[in-house]
């Protein structure tokens, strides 16, 4: 077993996980697939680079700003793409399309501000220090990626499980109408959920840009498909599932590249996805809902 | 005037949008079309003879035949293991399939890898539009056929569709395969127009474009995909013409327009097309006229067994919903089933109608075994029901709801409609008149064109009965039909049930309105905690002390939360 590859898989996998956690949170609480999530991921990467390159912030200071920017974008998504569809019979399909449309607008605006070219962090942005772990070399950024993912995932887990807001979210997930009856402000829960989800997606985008030191307009498309695969593999609406699924996918990809070939890397996600859907449709951590008659 | 290329792109992206429309009309979201298109494009480009050998049009037709067959095959192969998936799960699984196809093609040297392969250019605007119009014709004829109505019913409420005798699994696979064939057609036309096909032409973005075209155009009317395609193909042209297409502006405006359409035009562009509401030209107002009717079923004679339950039980986890019920219902009987909330009444009728399978014991209804037989077969055998909580097809009109009810009595009309056979029209007319009679029987004749969701609560309950009656059932199960009705309405309903019983129907009535059950039923079964605690005539049951204690004495039987 190659420790270096194992660690690389964990780092990239934790970015997938962070992205997928945000994705699955909206699906779990609001029963909507937010396809503007990858656009938030992309916006955050560019904003992160600008904050460092132009604003002069350190990469660590840029992350909280990106988190807030992501949260604000989440509020915009909720207001523009989902709120107006409330009560419509086709809200499911319409929400897919409206979020795709909004994503297109976000990306077009990015193109307006930053142009179509790849952007990079200034050369001196990253700490020089590297660490030796079991003979493998690990950069400070990579360690940070793993730690930040774990902290955010645990934080979200506590938020959902322990707080009043989390209880409202769980109630809304169970049954929005009933939640409203017992006094939950479902509109506010929707907005908060999208804000949190997008903030996590934004941090994932900035970390991704740091990990590969580049940001491109098309970067959201690739992770979108992987994110979908991860949330199905982990179990739709399961937060631990998204975490484990993301890490699993990162590892599987790294080992595919090493043992099979790099052009097969992207097949891994869909192979896993397919296997899970056919064998265990509720995913690794999901529970099957009993149909009501 | 749009150029040749624009005309071709409108036509072929219209065809691609139809491959989404094909599944959307049945409420399915599948995103595998780009994969089917890729298989068809590369497959036909590899296998079909060159136009230089056999001529342009023959070469294209052979390629289309190959591509559509490959689309059909691929969609069967993908459909069989994924048809149990619903909603976004199906979308994601099919999307995964399409991506896997793309990556496989990239890795196949013989197909040119990521660079792709050259294909002769054969498709002209005329050819592309002929194909588009053929596809549109298909869906034009499909819409108001028995098949088209069954698909709409599945879209609106899958479970209710099943209970009305529609084989949901078969229909879902059919639309999936239709979609695969059309995606294949698109792939071939694309390949024979753009000169060079690459795996990138069939990416996730392609699939999303197709979906967007279908949704923007609207999936309620067959012209939707064409309108969507014209709109989305012309917008960039228009922007170029008026000079606002610099870099980011074009994608921005295109996305903004998409957002506006989806937010403010819920039915898509097709909803702008005025639609005439088709009303049945009802002739023969006499209800008993058998000549024009669809009723051919031989109901069990008085005293013949219709339902036979032996030791029937159902456990949910540790909860015994139904325990060891023995029950026999005979032909022509109007049996009342009463009991306190949670007594297991609905579970019991769910087992009789085949929606739920018992944990132990046997169910025999009209000679078949519900629970071991698919729900739609139970319906076809002559079991029809209403649901405790209304499960109408909300966006279909009252008449259309009732027409779906007659699914088990009618013959398929789609193929005959496509060939304009007069017998199809005759069958449709008979079905319409049958449905109209059923509506009239429950007093909804004047509401035939109203969408079910717009009906009052009481009217919805009545429409459920009309829909169930339209199947000409031998056994009619009514699950709390009078809930929410006032006394006058309930009395009218009671009269109707009595009249149906005199027509030879066997009726199982679950009801909380005890007075109504006493008035309507010839025999009453009382259920408590999943067990039969009393059986007998209304008088006997009313005198039974156990019943009085368990049920009749309870303070407030109405308005229970579910």
TrEMBL record, chain A:
Q: Where are the transmembrane segments?
A: 6-28, 35-53, 93-114, 134-160, 189-208, 228-255, 267-285
List where in the cell it is found.
Answer: Cell membrane
Q: What is its main location?
A: membrane
The source's superkingdom equals Bacteria
The UniProt entry lists membrane topology as: Multi-pass membrane protein
**Which key words are in the record?**
Amino-acid transport, Cell membrane, Membrane, Transmembrane, Transmembrane helix, Transport
Q: This chain belongs to which protein, by name?
A: Branched-chain amino acid ABC transporter permease
Name the source organism. Occultella glacieicola
Q: Record keywords: Secreted included?
A: no
A Pfam family per the record: BPD_transp_2
Q: Give the similarity note.
A: Belongs to the binding-protein-dependent transport system permease family. LivHM subfamily.
UniProtKB/TrEMBL annotation, chain B:
Compartments (UniProt record): Cell membrane
The segment(s) forming the ABC transporter domain are: 307-554
Q: How is this protein situated with respect to the membrane? A: Multi-pass membrane protein
Q: Which domain of life is it from?
A: Bacteria
Q: What one GO molecular function would you report for this record?
A: ATP binding
Could you tell me which PANTHER family the record lists for this protein? Answer: CONSERVED COMPONENT OF ABC TRANSPORTER FOR NATURAL AMINO ACIDS, CONSERVED COMPONENT OF ABC TRANSPORTER FOR NATURAL AMINO ACIDS-RELATED
Q: Where is the signal peptide?
A: none
Q: What is its main location?
A: membrane
Keyword set, alphabetical order: ATP-binding, Cell membrane, Membrane, Nucleotide-binding, Transmembrane, Transmembrane helix, Transport
Q: Membrane-crossing residues?
A: 6-27, 34-51, 57-80, 87-106, 122-140, 173-193, 213-235, 247-269
Record's protein name:
Branched-chain amino acid ABC transporter ATP-binding protein/permease
């Amino acid at each position: 077993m190659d420790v270096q590859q194992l660690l690389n898989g964990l780092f990239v996998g934790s970015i997938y996980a962070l992205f997928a956690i945000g994705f699955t949170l909206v699906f779990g609480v609001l029963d909507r697939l937010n396809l503007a999530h990858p656009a938030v991921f992309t916006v955050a990467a560019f904003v992160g680079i600008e904050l460092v390159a132009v604003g002069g912030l350190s990469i660590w200071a840029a992350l909280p700003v990106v988190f807030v920017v992501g949260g604000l974008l989440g509020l915009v998504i909720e207001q523009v793409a989902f709120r107006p569809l409330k009560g419509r019979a086709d809200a499911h399909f319409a929400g897919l399309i409206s979020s795709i449309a909004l994503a297109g607008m976000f990306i077009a605006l990015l193109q307006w501000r930053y142009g179509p070219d790849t952007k990079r962090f200034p050369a001196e942005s990253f700490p020089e220090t590297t660490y030796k772990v079991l003979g493998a070399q690990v950069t400070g950024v990579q360690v940070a990626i793993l730690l930040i993912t774990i902290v955010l995932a645990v934080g979200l887990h506590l938020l959902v499980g322990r707080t009043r807001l989390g209880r409202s979210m769980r109630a809304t997930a169970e049954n929005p109408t009933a939640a409203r009856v017992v006094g939950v402000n479902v509109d506010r829960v929707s907005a908060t959920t999208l804000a949190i989800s997008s903030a996590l997606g934004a941090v994932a985008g900035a970390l991704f840009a740091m990990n590969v030191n580049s940001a491109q307009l098309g970067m959201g498309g690739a992770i979108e498909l992987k994110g979908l695969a991860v949330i199905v593999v982990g179990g739709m609406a399961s937060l631990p599932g998204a975490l484990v699924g993301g890490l699993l996918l990162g590892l599987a990809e790294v080992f595919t590249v090493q043992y099979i070939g790099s052009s097969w890397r992207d097949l891994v996600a869909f192979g896993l996805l397919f296997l899970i859907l056919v064998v265990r449709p509720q995913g690794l951590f999901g529970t099957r809902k009993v149909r009501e008659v | 005037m749009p150029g040749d290329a624009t005309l071709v792109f409108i036509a072929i992206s219209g065809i691609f949008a139809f491959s989404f429309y094909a599944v959307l009309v049945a409420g399915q979201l599948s995103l595998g079309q780009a994969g089917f298109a890729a298989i068809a494009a590369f497959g036909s480009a590899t296998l079909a003879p060159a136009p230089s050998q056999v001529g342009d049009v023959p070469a294209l037709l052979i390629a289309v035949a190959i591509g559509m067959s490959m689309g059909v095959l691929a969609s069967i192969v993908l459909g069989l293991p994924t048809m149990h998936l619903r909603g976004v799960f199906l979308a994601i699984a099919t999307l995964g399939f399409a991506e896997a196809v793309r990556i496989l093609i990239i890795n196949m040297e013989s197909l040119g890898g990521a660079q792709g392969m050259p294909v002769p250019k054969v498709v002209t605007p005329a050819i592309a539009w002929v194909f588009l119009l053929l596809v549109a014709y298909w869906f034009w004829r499909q819409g108001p056929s028995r098949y088209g109505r069954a698909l709409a019913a599945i879209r609106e409420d899958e479970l209710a569709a099943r209970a009305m005798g529609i084989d949901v699994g078969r229909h879902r696979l059919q639309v999936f395969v239709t979609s695969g064939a059309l995606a294949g057609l698109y792939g071939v036309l694309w390949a024979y127009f753009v000169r060079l096909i690459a795996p990138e032409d069939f990416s996730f973005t392609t699939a999303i474009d197709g979906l967007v075209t279908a949704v923007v155009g609207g999936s309620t009317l067959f012209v939707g995909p064409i309108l969507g395609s014209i709109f989305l193909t012309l917008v960039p042209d228009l922007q170029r013409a008026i000079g606002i297409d610099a870099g980011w502006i074009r994608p921005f405006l295109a996305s903004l327009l998409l957002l506006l359409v989806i937010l403010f035009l819920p039915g898509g562009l097709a909803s702008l097309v005025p639609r005439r509401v088709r009303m049945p030209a009802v002739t023969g107002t006499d209800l008993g006229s058998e000549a024009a009717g669809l009723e051919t079923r031989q109901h069990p004679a008085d005293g013949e067994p219709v339902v036979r339950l032996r030791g029937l039980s159902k456990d949910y986890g540790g909860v015994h919903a139904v325990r060891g019920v023995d029950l026999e219902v005979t032909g022509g009987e109007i049996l009342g089933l009463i009991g306190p909330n949670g007594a297991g009444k609905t579970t019991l009728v769910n087992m009789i109608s085949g929606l739920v399978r018992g944990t132990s014991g046997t169910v025999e209804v009209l000679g078949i075994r519900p629970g071991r037989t698919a729900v739609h077969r139970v319906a076809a055998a002559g079991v029809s029901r209403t649901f405790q909580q209304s499960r109408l097809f909300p966006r279909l009109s009252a008449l259309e709801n009732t027409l779906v009810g007659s699914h088990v009595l009618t013959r398929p009309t789609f193929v005959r409609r496509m060939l304009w056979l007069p017998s199809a029209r005759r069958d449709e007319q008979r079905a319409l008149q049958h449905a109209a009679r059923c509506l009239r029987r429950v007093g909804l004749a004047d509401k035939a064109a109203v969408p079910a969701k717009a009906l009052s609560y009481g009217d919805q309950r009545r429409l459920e009965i009309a829909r169930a009656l339209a199947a000409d059932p031998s056994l009619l199960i009514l699950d709390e039909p009078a809930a929410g009705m006032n006394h006058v309405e309930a009395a009218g309903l009671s009269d109707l049930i009595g009249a149906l019983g005199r027509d030879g129907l066997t009726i199982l009535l679950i009801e909380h309105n005890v007075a109504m059950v006493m008035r309507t039923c010839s025999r009453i079964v009382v259920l408590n905690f999943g067990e039969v605690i009393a059986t007998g005539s209304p008088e006997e049951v009313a005198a039974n002390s156990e019943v009085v204690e368990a049920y009749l004495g309870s303070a407030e039987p109405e308005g229970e939360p579910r």
